[in-house]
Fold these 4 entries.
Entry 1:
Amino acid sequence: MEILELSSKKHFKQFVNLPFEIHKNHSGWLPPILSDDEVFFDKNKNNQFSKSDTVLVLALKNNKPVGRIMGIVPTEYNLKHNLRDVRFNYLETFEDYEVVYELLKFVENWGRQKGCTSIVGPLGFSDKEPQGLEIEGFDNPPLILTNNNWPFMVGFLEKYGFKKKTDLLSYKIPVPEEYPDEYFQKYCLYREQHKNLKILNIKTRYGVWKYLKPAMNLINELFSEIYAHNPMSKKDINLLVKRFLFLLVPKYMKGILNEKKELIAFVIGMPDIAKGIQECNGRLFPLGFWKIFQSQRKTKDLILMLGGIKKEYRNIGLDFWLSLEIFNEIHKAGIITVKGHLVLESNVKTQAKMTKFGGEVNKRFRIFEKNIQV
C-alpha cells in the first residue's frame, strides 16, 4: 500500500471521485455536488486553506485509489481556544481496516510534527461542513451536508482507539394540523408588547441575496462560542451566498427587523433536495439541475438549516413568531415533515423545543477524539 500527499491533477481527481466508487451501491449515501467539491478541495479556490495547515492524502493499492483523508490543523481556532488539535475529515475507504489505520496514522504523525497533542474528527475547517460519523439513523433518508458513512467506519475508529468527544443530533418533526395553542398564546402576548418589530417576508431571489449576508454576519456573532465554529470572512460569506442562492426558496426564509430595519432574528428552511441529488449522482450536467429543482418542488420535507436571535432580543417571544411564520408557509405548501439540521447534544434548550413540537431523533453523529502520544 502507498500513502501519498496529493501532488498532481491526477491524484486530485482520484481524491474527489473516490467516494462515488466506494458508495456506488450504498442506498443511504447522498453524493456531494461534484463541482462544489472540485472547488472546495482546491487550495487556490477555497479561502479556508489560508487559515489552517492542511494535507490531502490518498491511499493506493496496485496503483488504484482505495482510501482518502484530509488533515487540518486549525491554527486560528487552536490559538483562540488554547488547543493543540489536529482534525481529520472526508475519510473514505472500502471496508478495509488496514487502509483506515494507515490514513489515520499518517494524519496523526503529521499533526504530531506540528506540535498537536490530540486528533479529533470527523471535523473540517468549521461547523458549516459535514461533521461527525453517523452512528444512528442509517435506515432514515440521508441528510444534506452531513457524512453518510458506512456503519463499519464507526467500529474502525473505535478499534483505532478513538473515544467519543461529542454527539450532534438531527430531529424529525411531523407537522401538526394546527399551530400549538400554547405557543400561539405566547406569540400573541409578546407580539402586543413589541409592536416596533416587523416580520421580514422574503418573496424574491433578490431578497434572499440581500438578507442572507446579514444573516451570516449574525451567525458569526451568535455562534462564536459554539464548538468548531470558525467565523466567516466577507469572502467566505459571498461564496456561501453564491452556493445556496438558487437552492433556497424565499418563502422559507423568515426574519425580524427592529425599528432601524436591522436583522435581529432569522430562520432559514430549505426543501429537502436529497432525492434529486441522488438521482443525478451529484452531477449538475446535463440534467442534474432539473432533477434537483424537481425534487425541490415535489418534496414534502423541509430542513431547518440555520436560525438565530440577537442576544439582546432573546426571551421576548421572537422564536414563537418565527416558528408561526414558518408553520403557516409549510402548512400552505403541504409539507408534512420538518427535519432539524445538526444540533450539539449540549444544546438542551433547542432539543427541548424540538421535543415539545413532537420531534424525535432522526440521526445521530459523533465526533471522536484520541490523544497523540508524543
Entry 2:
Amino acid sequence: MASSRKPAKKAARGEAAPRAPKTGKARKTAAPAKAPASAAARTGEAVARRQRGLQEKARAANAAIGDSKKKDKPVQAGARRQPVPPMPAQHLDKPGRERDLRESPRFEAPDYRGSGKLEGMKAIVTGADSGIGRAVAVLFAREGADVAVFYLSEHGDAEATARAVEAEGRTCYLHPGDVKDSRFCKRAVDKAARQLGGLDILVNNAAFQQHVERLEDLGDAQLDETLGTNIGGYFHMARAALPHMGEGASIINTGSETALFGSKALLDYSATKGAIHAFTMSLAGQLLPRGIRVNAVAPGPVWTPLNPADREAADVARFGADSDMGRPAQPEEISPAYVFLASPVMSSYVNGVVLPVMGGPRG
C-alpha cells in the first residue's frame, strides 16, 4: 500500500532549514584538540603544586602558634635577667642623681671577666658619675686601666664610681666641671694626664637632654645648653686631650640611635648626636696618620638618670617598652662595646666606626 505522506519540500534558497526533531539527547560537539604538554609546562605545574604545599604548611604552623606569639614580650638575651617595663614612675630634678633612682642602673657586669685588655693604660671618661660612663669606667678598670672621671656636679655619684674603680684595683681621679667651658677642659685634662701619668683613651660621654614637643617652644637657652654640652664639649675635650695622646691611643664618642632615626621631641639632642657621628668619622680620618683611632657607640634606650631627669613619671614608667627588645638596656650591657673599641688587641683595625648597640635593627 502506498504511503500517504508527501515528500518534504526542499527549503528555498535563503530560507532556514527546518529544525530536526528533539530526541532527548544533547548534541555532542567536538572538543578542540590539546597540544601535548611540554616538559617546561609540566615543570611549572609541579613547582606551583609544591608552592601551594609550602603555603599550606606555613599557614598551619602560623595558626598553631596563635596567641603564644606576643610582639611586646621583653627579650632577655644576656647572662642574667634585666629589669623590664614598667620601670618605676619617677621624675628626677636635673642633672639627675643615680642614687635617687628607685631602680638602680646595673653597671657592675658581674659575669664579665677582665683579661688585661687595657693593662697599664690611662683613660678619661666624661659623664662617668653615673649611667653608661660609670659602667665604662668600671670595666676599663677591670681590664687594667686607671681612670679619671669627669662630671658636672653629682659628687656623691662620682664618689661611688671612684669606689667601684678602686675596688677593681685601679686608681681613680675626680674632676667636676662643665665640658661646655673649653678652659675647664684644657685645665682638667692637663691635670688628669699628670695624675694618670699619660693618656691613652678619651671617652666623650657627657650629655644634656630635654624633650620639647614643639620647635617653637625650644628656646635659645636650651639650644645652647644641648649643643654646647653634646657636641661643643666633645670638640673641647678632644682638642685638650690630643697633645697627651700618641700612637695606639683612641677616642670613643657616645652617639645615639636618635642620630640614625631621629626623635620628634628631641630635635636638638638628635641633631647633636648626628653631629657626633659625623665628627667621629671626620676626626678618624684626620688622626689616622698619627695612629690614633676614633670611633663611636650608638646606644638605644638605656636605663640611666638621663631620662628620669627629662621625662614625666608616667613616661619614665614606659621607657624602653617600644624598643625591639621591649625593655631598656642596662649600662652593663653597653660598656663592653667601649672596651672593644678601646683595646688595641681587639680593634686595632677598627677606625671611623659608629657601633650600634640598640637591641635590634630599629632600636
Entry 3:
Amino acid sequence: MVLKIFNIINGLWCQNKITAKLGLGLKRWIVETGWSGETVLNNNLSMPRLGLGLWGPREGAETELAVSAALEAGYRLFDSASVYHNEKSLGLALMASGLKREDYFVVGKIWNDEQGWLGPQEAMKRSLDNLGLGYFDLTLIHWPTRQSGLTWRALAQARFLGLTRSIGVANFSPTQLLALVEETGLSPQVWQMEIHPLRVRADLPPLAAAWGIQLMAYSPLARGRLKKNQVIGRIAQKLDRSFSQVILRWAWQRGLGVIPKSVKPDRIKENAQIFDFSLSNEDMTAITRLDQARSVLKPPFVFDEAGYVLASAQ
C-alpha cells in the first residue's frame, strides 16, 4: 500500500530524468527501511517479498482454500507452475477475492519439456487460460536445460508481447546463470533457489546484489526438517515465536524473497507474521551455522556433467 501511494505521487512528480532518478531512490529507501513488504526489481517494477508456494496442494478445494486463507492473511504473491497442476484453482480463488489484477502478483514457470523457442509462449498461453489471467507478473525457467538459451530469448519476446511483466530463472547455478546472461545479453529480474538453514548458500546473496537480481528462496522451511532443531527452538522460545516464524525472519533479514507453502489456514497466517520482531546478529549467526549444504529435494530427473537437466529425463 505504501508503494502504491508513492507510485501515484511519483508519476505526477517525475517529469524529467533527474526527478525520476530521485523518485527511484526514494522508492528503494521505502523498501530498504522496511516501510513496505515489497522489493523493487531491476526493471523498476515492485514485487512482494512474501508469497505462498503452491507446489503440493491438489487442484480443487485444497488449493482454493489455501489461496483464500493467504489472501485474508495479507499474501499477494502466488508462486505457481504448470507442473503443479493447480492453476485453475488458483485462478478461481483470485477471481473470487474481488481484488483488482494489479493488486496481486502471480509467478509462472516454464517446465523442462516446454523449453526452446516455440514451447514457452505456448505453455504460458495455456497456463494463463487455466488461470483466467491476461499476463504473468513473473515467469521463470523452472530448471536449466541445454535449451535454456532459446527459452530465455522466447521469454524476452513474451515480455515484449505482454504475456509477462518480468522474467527470471530457478535452480540455475551461478555459472549457469552467468553463461545465460553472456549468451543472450539479457539479465533476469528474479533468481529463485532452494535456500534454508540446512542449505544457506552464503555465496548467492552477494552475487545477486552485485548483479542487481532479487533472490527468492523456495522451500525456506526445509520441508519440515527443522521442526525439532534445538538452536531454532531456543531462539523461538526466547522470542515467543514459532519455529517457522524464526526461520522465515532469518531469510527475510538476509534480503531474500520467501515462498513458504502450507494448506492449513492457521499455519499460512502464522507464516505471514514475521514483521513485528527481528533476530539479533547472534541469532542470525547461530542459524546460519546450521548449514550442511544439504538439499531436501529429490528431482525426478538426472543432470549432465554441467548440471543441466538431460533431455531424456525431462
Entry 4:
Amino acid sequence: MKRLFILEEITAGYRKMTTAGKNLVCENVILVTHSMGGLVARLAAKIDQEGRQRILGVAHGVMPATGAATAYKRTRSGFEGASAVILGWDGADMMATMAYAAGPLELMPFPNYNANFDPYQTPEATPRKHWLRACHQDGRNNEISYDLGTKDFMGSIYLSDEENVWWRLMKEELINPAGKEERAKKIKEARKNGKVIAAENDQTTDFDKFALLMTKTVQKTQSELSSGEVDYYHPVTYAHYAADREQKSFNEVCWRNTEGFYRLSKNDMPLDAMRRITPGSVPLPHKDETPDYLLGKEISDDLLGKVTLQLEDKNDAAYHYYSATFKIDKPREPGDGTVPACSGAAPTKYCRQIFRHEGTAKGQPSYAHVPSYNSPIAQDVTVYSVIRIVMETHPAFSAKGQPEEMTTEEEP
C-alpha cells in the first residue's frame, strides 16, 4: 500500500541531529492540525496502519469535522470580503475552480452533518437538521421553511444536474468554460484539414468528470471518516473550536424570499412587466402546502447568491406565471467565520478533551478561522494538548504506557 505519511523521512532527519555528541531519538510523532488538515490526519491514521502506530496523538484546531455549509455557499456565490479578489469573486469563478479541486470539495457537509448539533444538549433535544432550505412568508406573515434536496446530499444536491433543481451545487456550463472554447477551436481546425481528433469523439461531459471526482474521491473520503453514526478519530485526540457569536458562520444555507411573489403575463415576459402580488390577492403557499418554487424554472442567477424563478399560476395557467426571487441569507450561527460550532463540536464524544472558545462573550479572545493559531488561547490549549498526549503515552509518565480514559469539554 502506498504510504500516506512521510513519517520515516521526517523522523530520520531528526535522528541525524546530535546534541551533546549523541544522536537524537525520534521514532514517533504528535500531529497538530489546522482546519481541513484534521480530515487529512484522520484519514491517514485510519487507513495507514503502520503510520498510525507511530502517531502518539492528534491535536486538532478549528476542524470542520463533519464539513461546513460555507463550502456550498461559496461555490454558488463566491467568497466574502477581500478574499474574493484572489479566491473567487462569484459562482462562475468558484465553480470553475471547485469542480476540479477534490480537497475543497471534501469540505461539503458530510452525510452525518447536523446543523442543529449542540454538545450541551441531548440527542433528543438536537435532532438532525437539514442544512439547505428555502424560506418565505405566507399571507399571514408566518415564516415557512422547506428543505432543499434530501438526506442524500450527494445525489440531490452535489451531483444533481437537473435544471429545475435550482439549488444544485454545480452548473455544467460554468465548470470548464475555457475548455469548451478551446475544444471547439481544435475540432474546427482539425475538420478544416480533414482530420478527427480525440476531443471530437470524447463523449464525456465536464459534469461527468466532476461527478467522477465526487464519487471516487470526495464520497470515498467522507465515508471513510464517517460510516453511519460512527466517526473515526485517533484514539488519543484533543481538539479546540470556536463558537463565537462575533464570528458568524453558516451552519445552514437558507435561500430566503424577501421580495414577495410577482405576477408575469405569458405574453409579456420581461421582468419589468411584473407587479407585486399583495397578500390576499394571490393564494401564497401555507405550511401544509408544497410550494411551486421547489420545482420552479430558473429565470436568472446573478452568481452572487440571488436566483429568480418562474412558477406557473395554477389558478390562471393560461395567462400568467408567477416569479419569485431568493437570496442566500447571511450567516447567523456562532463559529469562526468558516466552520460553524455544530461541526467544530462534532468530535466531542471522541476526544480526551475538547475546548470551546466563545470569544468576548466569555471573556476570551475572538479569532477567525484562517489565522486562528495567532490567538494566544488557541496556542495555549494546543501546547496543553501536546503535553497531555506526551504524559498519557510516554512510559515515563504512565506505568502502563497507555493513556487513561478521559472525555470532557472545557472552556479555558
